[in-house]
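A note from the maintainers: we've had questions about how concatenated examples are separated. There is no special marker in the raw files; a new sequence line simply starts the next protein. For clarity in this README we add a label.
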Amino acid sequence: MAWDFSTDPDFAAHLEWMRRFVDEEIEPLSLFYDDMSDDAWKQATEPLKQQVRDRGLWACHLDPELGGQGYGQVKLALMHEILGRCAQAPAVFGNQAPDSGNSELIAIGGTEEQKRQWLEPLLRGEITSCFSMTEPHFSGSDPTMIATRAERDGDEYVINGHKWFASNASKADFILMMVVTNPENPPHKAASFVIIPKGTPGLDIARDVYNMQHPYPGHFRSGGHAEIFLRDCRVPVANRVGDEGGGFVLAQQRLNGGRIHHAMRWVGQCGAAFDMMCERAVSRSTKGELLIEKQMIQEMIAESSADIRALRLMALHSAWVWETLGASKARVEIAELKFWGARVLHDVIDRAIQVHGALGWSADLPLADMYVRARQMRIADGADEVHKSFVATKQAKAYKPVEGWPSAHVPTRKAELRERFAAFLDHEAANL
């Protein structure tokens, strides 16, 4: 019977090194992230990235021939649990969003020339990318409603449309965009992905959209989420990734693995919030008692501990199903993980804020920023409601409707089973 929660000793050593590296090198530097220019940050982090490369932990989500380590989903999940404790850590390990997902998509569907021109420098950290699917006037949870069109004109596509919440677009060297290339096809076979280089005529990156994390005009240090207009934007057909009309298949291959990575990073974030909450509970007093002696605080800590453990097991199990049975067999597990994980992330951080009071709400602790990011996760990569609907529909298919009483109706079942157990029932009656 194979039921093992242990980690391979050699890989466990890598994980222990990662924990120390994130806690002692990346996290202290991250405190000055907003105080540095892009060039200064690059200069500060390049030696750290080299240490990661020397350790053989760079871009582990890709196969060795593509510059990665070829780690499976379970090992990647354990790594992302550690990286999730610091928002800047994934970039130091070469697997930050959206670059990691975009590199997987190009690795799966790209031509050799696309890999040479875009994937290889992306993996080396020489360029950055953007993922653009969402549009402002159509439901982002229903990609079949995408309206941005790419019409074929000889060896080029002429693209017209309107995108927004395009992650990292304002800083990216290229945009990986989903556009409609085959409107005559069924909805799930109508769209394709194309690579649009920065500076392409007709590509107008209008603004970074102000949001809960960046509510006011100012510097979007991380690249933001941009609004884009495309007006007769010409892109070579050679820039299409994958088959024409194959965008939906590629999108799911990109997003589902990323959802496992997201969830394990959430476990790491929850762990950081939990540490802050517990430290506060054993340090702060009110009305003659430490907070940890208050039953309401004890409940917050206990609920958070159980939530984090459950989320971690759900994520690792989803990774195991993907790795063992294949990605298509893990769709329900990943959908459950997405909405459940986002809820746990929000709730644990919210409790940590509550335990800290006004300090938790202030920018003097990282909790307020973590809370805003957590709220986004109930929308990003598919709204909670979409995943819940998918899970419920898939699970219900295993059941058949019944007429009359439900199958668990006790009087009906006893009547059907009475003859089977008659000897015992008669014996029982005789002794009354």
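[label: protein 2]
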Amino acid sequence: MNTRLEFTPHWGLTGPNRQTVLGALLPSRFRPANTKRHAVTLADREQLYLFENGPARSTSAPIVLVHGLGGSYQSNYLRRISAKLAQRGRQVFRVNLRGCVEGIQIARKTAHAGCTQDLADALRWIQQHSNDRAPAIAAFSLGGNILLKLLTQVDQFPGIEIARAIAVAPPVDLDTSCQKITQRHGGFYDRSFLRGLRKQLKLRARVYPDCPYTQLAPFPRTLREFDDRFTAPVNGFAGASDYYQKSSSKDQLGQITTPSTILIAEDDPVVPAEIFADVTLSTTTTLLRTGHGGHLGYLGRRLAEGDRRWMDWKVIELLLGE
């Protein structure tokens, strides 16, 4: 199903770049409190962290949130949505993907667009610590592709159950997405991601000085080059092309049997909407489109809930089945 939603940007924040940049930078009064950190052992014996908020003994199914490229459990959108859900009495787990921020101390490898085993291991831990209740999960940007890829492989992970899934701005065609991010907007978002990745790589080099892939000189000038010289070899791929082909979820979306929703903005400057033009979806998957919103921006008029974050409240509505 392909459905168009109405989203009206704030009058002073029109345009995809304003929505994207200010959506990421503007502060929020919604902040998670009483956070608990859990270490989850992965299939290869490395670990990642989960961050829990809300009541530990909730009678409702848990909620799981997953960040995107260059993000972490501290990403503003995860913090806001986690706080809003916890205020509603929901138990929430923010997945800090392998090797991100302090997670670098417990994992030599990194997260990548196809790390479905990591997400499955995290979900299994959450189910075991939530009376085996099937969680609802929302994942953003690169995390959205990981989630959708997992949904196409769910039969490969016995015991994993997902009540409903929401993927926001997922780059389901990694090759095309990387091409467009370099070609459009003067390469602004390419450089933005690379600045963050460069900082992470410097930290990784200090923690793991024996890793041969942390010394990238000269440093890559595009995301594709970074993936070719770092992400792919560190995670066992032959190169960027092999990584993108094996990790993209687009060609398998028709296999999804979990009730799922994909939310995209047609003016997204990071994940091009055209990658969904010829997509084949399963009967359990709904594609929601907005004309505006940028990349995870969606700053609109002030809502009854108290802020201008349209995306947050739409995701919460979908997660709770309202």
